[in-house]
């Protein structure tokens, strides 16, 4: 019965304007500066903020994810355009796509339309597709990714490393970035085995000319490890939590100023680390 109630309420979430986006900053490891922001969906319902894991599966089963995903894409592009103008910062925004959207919607057409509507340059948009989806729908996925690439947006493979993709296949895909699943990072740098694996994946990314984004950076030690091993980008609670639009805008405006504190710039070899 719970699922039914949820399902009915979920149908109304869009028309009642109950969907929200939170944005989590992504940092360039070499410069310590913000490179992008991942848009993460929330549902403000019954006085609570419901996380995506609690309603996205239902939205996928019912097909509602198609309309919701379109809302997410449009909202993320509108905000990115606005923030780029206000801050002068060349922010990139990342939007998660569901397998159901790939199946049921003409994503390349939708993406070009939304970019045109909002005036956001294609290079400022990244689309994230989970590795397991790419593997499961390999032929279709490759076709859609190629079409999206020709629109000019970039493509990231999400939760990379746990979805059993073959490297031979990956090499053929038009992919700009691999987002290392956060399970890889969780015991870095304490576990020598995991640390070597992450270092090897970063090196592999460089050789294949795809960017590596480390997800789930929760400690200063993890951030320092990534900087030391030349990881391209990093994202995680230590660097910045997913936050409301107003808070993200404030962060970006502050960040644009010359001497604003940059969490990654203070890692590495510095011996006088400021408090976190
Ligand atoms: P994801 O795309 O892999 O997003 C990263 C998730 O990890 C987010 O959870 C984020 O809040 C969380 N996270 C970020 N940094 C850390 C960290 O340092 N430690 C830990 N433990 N977690 C961290 P969230 O927001 O609950 O989203 C969960 C999943 O829901 C996302 O995983 C994504 O697959 C899906 N999702 C979120 N928004 C959308 C959307 O608009 N559309 C679709 N189709 N899926 C979405
Ligand atoms: Mg993601
Ligand atoms: Mg992920």
Name the features.
alpha/beta; 48% helix; 276 residues; binds magnesium ion; 8-stranded mixed beta barrel; globular
Task: Walk me through what this model shows.
The chain is of the alpha/beta class and 276 residues long. It contains 12 helices and 9 strands. The chain is globular and about 50 Å long. It binds ligand C2E and magnesium ion (2 copies). Residues 24, 40-41, 51-53, 56, 69, 72, 96-98, 128, 158-159, 182, 216-218, 236-237, 242 line the site of ligand C2E. Ligand C2E binds next to strand 2, helix 2, helix 3, strand 4 and strand 6.
Structure summary:
The chain is 48% helix and 20% strand.
Write the layout of secondary structure elements.
Elements lengths: L1 H12 L5 E10 L5 E12 L2 E3 L1 H11 L2 H23 L4 E6 L1 H6 L2 H12 L6 E6 H6 L1 H14 L2 E7 L6 H6 L4 E4 L1 H4 L6 H17 L2 E4 L5 H9 L4 E2 L10 H12 L20
Parallel strand pairs: 2-4, 4-5, 5-6, 6-7, 7-8, 8-9
Antiparallel strand pairs: 1-2, 1-9, 2-3
Bound molecules: ligand C2E and magnesium ion (MG) (2 copies).
């Amino acid at each position: 019965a719970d699922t039914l109630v949820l399902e009915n309420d979920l149908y109304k979430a869009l028309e009642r304007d109950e969907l929200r986006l939170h944005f989590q900053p992504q940092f360039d490891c070499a410069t310590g500066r913000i490179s992008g922001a991942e848009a993460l969906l929330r549902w403000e319902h019954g006085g609570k903020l419901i996380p995506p894991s609690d309603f996205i599966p239902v939205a996928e089963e019912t097909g509602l994810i198609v309309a919701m995903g379109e809302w997410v894409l449009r909202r993320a592009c509108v905000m990115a355009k606005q923030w780029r103008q206000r801050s002068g910062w060349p922010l990139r925004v990342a939007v998660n796509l569901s397998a159901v959207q790939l199946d049921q919607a003409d994503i390349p057409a939708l993406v070009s339309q939304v970019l045109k509507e909002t005036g956001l340059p294609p290079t400022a948009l990244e689309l994230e597709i989970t590795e397991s989806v790419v593997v499961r729908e390999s032929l279709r996925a490759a076709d859609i990714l190629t079409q999206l690439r020709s629109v000019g947006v970039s493509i990231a493979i999400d939760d990379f490393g746990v979805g059993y993709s073959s490297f031979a296949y990956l090499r053929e895909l038009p992919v700009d970035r691999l987002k290392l699943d956060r399970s890889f990072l969780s015991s870095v740098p304490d576990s020598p085995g995991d640390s070597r694996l992450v270092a090897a994946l970063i090196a592999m990314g460089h050789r294949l000319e795809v960017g590596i984004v480390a997800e789930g950076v929760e400690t200063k030690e993890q951030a320092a490890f990534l900087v030391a091993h030349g990881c391209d980008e990093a994202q995680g609670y230590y660097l910045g939590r997913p936050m409301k639009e107003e808070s993200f805008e404030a962060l970006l405006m502050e960040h644009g100023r010359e001497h604003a504190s940059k969490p990654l710039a203070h890692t590495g070899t510095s011996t006088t680390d400021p408090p976190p």
